[in-house]
Amino acid sequence: MTTSTAPGGVWADLIGQDRVVETLQRAVAGASAGNRHAMTHAWLFTGPPGSGRSNAARAFAAALQCPFGGCGECNTCTTALSGAHPDVTLVRTEQLSIGVDEVRDLVRRAAMSPTLARHQVLVIEDADRITERGADALLKSIEEPAPRTVWLLCAPTADDVVATIRSRCRLVELSTPGTAAVAELLQRRDGVGPELAGFAARVAQGHIGRARALARSEDARERRRAVLQVPARLVSLGACLDAAARLVEAATAESAQVTAELDARERAELSEALGFTTKGARPRNAQAALRDLEDQQKARAKRLQRDALDRVLTELTSFYRDVLVVQTASRAELINAELDSSITQLARDTTPEATIAKLDAILACRTALETNVAPLLAMESLMLSLGGLA
Q: Cα–Cα distances in Å, from 51 out to 22, 135, 186, 193, 196?
């Protein structure tokens, strides 16, 4: 067996991660040769948002199953990467957490022998969202794994995963890819023009998924422009409260746009499964099943709204970071170079201390949203702080 070399095969999209790819390729070769020092049964992929930790885990899963070590072209690779391979399970929750019941289902699957390939591989893209009870259920499977089972967990940092689990995993740390590398990927993979690719890569600050969304969607670029216009409008109490309401409304609408069709399809599928489309009385417990679905859909909508607001906070952070760059005469490049004039003007009208206080307020807002403070209340507090009225 030969191992594919970066950036080819399944590793092609792992830009700026040469060290990680080399480690994973050695593990793939070791797994084939029965080398226990190169391969282990549990891995933890960490890295900043958009660094590609989930892509790395999926590529590794495909390479472990591929007879050529990750060619990226065979049926094994394509089905493993897409989640259609019977021996590769991809888990990405749309809820706020991964509960114990879902983890137990995964543990049962992990105990099964592979049907087609050499390994039973389970990829959990949001391992940081596993609940405490879920972590307890997962721990035993990782401590005493089935002979051919491989767990691939993903999280922003190792500290986001329960200590007992992370201590039993081999750590793979990804870094934020550079602007040039992200721009090259957008051109090569998505056919984006050089100018737009460069812009999207710069303002996304190394977040590959965000860069792709900005490059491919004028709506995404317009939402970003609207957020960056907010600081100049925070001139009164009313303006601050209005800005907060608009941002929350926009995040809610963005969430609804994503979930509306999916919600309707899920409800229709459940109704059909429960027998609502046939004649006769409704099955017993049908209303309970529908309520459970509605609760899951509400949790998903809440998460998507939170994600949209988090993007708002990221854009505001980049704006005030640029203001601070100008104020401190730093040689760092501006993220929002197209707003150079307004950034320079604000830098002259305020002090570095005031800008740092605004960055701290953005961080406090993010923390508040993570601890389930009402979005409107959190955003109103932030806008008042950014407007100097708090």
A: 17, 25, 14, 22, 20
Cα distance between residue 96 and residue 71, in whole Å: 35
Alpha-carbon distance of 289 to 219, in angstroms, equals: 36
> Could you tell me the two tokens for 69?
């070590």
Is the sign of the CA dihedral 32, 33, 34, 40 positive or negative? negative
Q: pLDDT tens-digit profile of 26-68?
A: 999 988 877 666 789 999 999 988 889 999 999 999 999 999 9
Does the pTM surpass 0.85? The reply is: no
pLDDT tens digits, one per residue of 106-118:
999 999 989 988 8
d(CA 25, CA 72): 13
Distances (CA, A) of 357 to 48, 118, 351: 24, 54, 10
Residue showing tokens 């999207």:
200
Here the tokens at position 298 are 């509400």
